[in-house]
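Sample log: Formin binding protein 1a.
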Amino acid sequence: MSCNWGTELWDQFDNLEKHTSWGIDFLERYTKFVKERADIELSYAKQIRSLSKKYHPKRNREDESRYTWFVAFAATLQQLNELAIQREDLAENLNAQIVCELTRYTQELKTERKSHFQDGRRAQQHIESSWKQLESSKRRFERDCKEAERAQHVSDKIDLDNKTDGEKQKQQAAEESRKDYMTSLNQFNQDQHQHYHTLVPVIYQRIQDMEERRIERIGEAMRSLAEAERKVLPVVSRCLDAMMEAAESIQPRKDTRQVVEVYKSGFDPPGDVEFEDYSATMRRSISESSYLDNRTEERRQSRKLWPFIRKTKSQLPWGRLTEARLPYCTIGPSGHHQ
């Protein structure tokens, strides 16, 4: 449905001025909204990039990279860094395509609006001036007519057959005032007709066109915002797909088998410990020589190590530089472990 501000809002100059001013304020507010949105995207990208860098391995350790869960996490961090790049691109597009363009357009719109309302004020001032001229000629005509009427009453009272010079002057002034009033009235009617049927419709139509362009530009900016967001979605989707693939690549059984391959020594578990009888030393019926022989044997056996012996560095099956922390004990003469 079409409308024309010039014919339908011919008497709403002040309200149109307020409305268009509010429209420009909204345009500036929307521009600020997009600017802050871009700042948020940049801040988010910076934090995501910092997070990815914080948890990314400092160096490629062979013992970590052999596990699927570690490789999956490293791949996730890499995709997270790619997501940060996409958010930075989005922020750059918002600033370049929307914020800068709307800022420039707002300044142009303010200049155009000022020009239109200046034309409207000049037209309003002209019609007001014409109205004042009409009122002035009307009051002068009214005054001259009253003075001419009083002069005629005075002449009638003194019953003069001929008009006096004063009465003639009054009537002549009233007649001239009447002509001036008619001229002013015709001029005002012409000015008023031109004002409301020519000037105001043209000026208000320009203001209406300006307002419609402003609204259209806001719609274009909103579409550009959505399109900029949609533009990064395919890459974001690929990053998320890569994260899903990394998660699905984790193999618990393979990782636990890898632990065996890394830490398995290759040795068999120790066998049962044999019983050693020391009760013969306690028999009182043995000979002293036997006793001494047994004591000699005991001293020799006391130097026998427990099966879980401390091994030297060269004896460790995995060839590491650390020492094995195993229990160390000997068998004393009394048969107790030390």
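Observation: Residues 302-338 have pLDDT under 50 and may be disordered.
Observation: The two ends are 107 Å apart (CA to CA).
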